[in-house]
């Protein structure tokens, strides 16, 4: 059977793997037409048995043409607190068990030394992610770093350093491993007032996974109140309701040879 080029880029959604019954949620949303899912964990696995969870999700998908595009672990593996150590352990376990879900990709935050400037985290980034990258490569797994700042910036932050192209340059200079890349979306770039379209062209070889999330930059608010005033100058939006032209986004991804998924990240839109 000839492959369907329309499925070179699947449109899917994220699924909270920490739910009591993620498989039931998957079964609930299948009629909506999603073509992929990204089960993700917040910080730790919460006691989940990954072998059992993978089987339950496979059973929920059944004969539907739906893939598990990737798995997610969102926490801070660079710090040394109890929860942070649990995040690192979760990364190791998810990397080792990604194949059970039929995927070869794990996504999440890099982590960060809390309250420190971004560059202070680079030695620890190399120390933690070097072994994780090798562990993943041994199992045929790629790692994609989410590009959300989590309210951090260059001077300080708590969760992630992979939130703008200057940081990406530093990160991939530290660890140029071929199986390390980005989980990209236009929203987080628009939050920084960065044009996302040229970014796709430059960073396409490192874009391993895409989140479907957009943003509206409220230029009238910026002109009157600036970006540090009482009113939010940007709103995170559902794709199609923000400033991005998704025809251009998908076209640029296809022109760059991207094959994978755009998994919608909901929960943030103040309107929907």
User: Helicity level, as a percent range?
Assistant: 25-40%
CATH T-level fold name: TIM Barrel
Task: Provide the gyration radius in Å.
Answer: 18 Å
Supply the CATH architecture: Alpha-Beta Barrel
User: What is the overall number of helices?
Assistant: 9
Kindly report the average pLDDT value. 97
- Give the end-to-end Cα distance, rounded to a whole number of Å: 39 Å
**CATH classification, class level:** Alpha Beta
Structural class: alpha/beta
Number of domains: 1
Largest β-sheet summary? 8 strands, parallel, barrel
Supply the CATH superfamily name. Divalent-metal-dependent TIM barrel enzymes
| Total beta-strand segments | 11
What is the topology, as strand order, of the major beta sheet?
1-2-4-5-6-7-8-11
**Residue ranges: pLDDT <50 for 5 or more in a row?**
none
Report strand %. Answer: 15-25%
């Amino acid at each position: 059977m000839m492959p369907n080029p329309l499925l070179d880029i699947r449109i899917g959604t994220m699924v909270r793997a920490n739910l009591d019954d993620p498989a039931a949620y998957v079964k609930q949303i299948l009629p909506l037409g999603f073509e992929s899912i990204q089960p993700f964990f917040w910080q730790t696995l919460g006691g989940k048995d990954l072998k059992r969870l993978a089987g339950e999700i496979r059973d929920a998908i059944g004969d539907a043409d739906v893939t598990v595009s990737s798995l997610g672990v969102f926490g801070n593996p660079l710090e040394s607190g109890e929860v942070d150590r649990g995040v690192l352990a979760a990364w190791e376990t998810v990397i080792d068990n990604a194949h059970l879900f039929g995927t070869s990709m794990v996504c999440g935050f890099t982590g960060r030394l809390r309250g420190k400037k971004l560059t202070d985290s680079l030695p620890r980034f190399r120390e933690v992610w070097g072994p994780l990258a090798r562990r993943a490569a041994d199992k045929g797994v790629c790692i994609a770093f989410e590009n959300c700042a989590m309210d951090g910036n260059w001077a300080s932050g708590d969760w992630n350093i992979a939130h703008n192209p200057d940081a990406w340059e530093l990160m991939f200079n530290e660890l140029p491993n071929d199986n390390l890349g980005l989980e990209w979306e236009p929203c987080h770039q628009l939050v920084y007032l960065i044009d996302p379209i040229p970014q796709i062209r430059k960073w396409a070889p490192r874009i391993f996974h895409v989140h479907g999330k957009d943003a509206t930059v409220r230029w009238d608010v910026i002109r009157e109140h600036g970006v540090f005033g009482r009113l939010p100058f940007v709103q995170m939006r559902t794709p199609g309701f923000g400033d991005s032209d998704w025809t251009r986004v998908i076209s640029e991804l296809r022109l760059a040879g991207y094959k994978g998924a755009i998994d919608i990240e909901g929960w943030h839109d103040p309107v929907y």
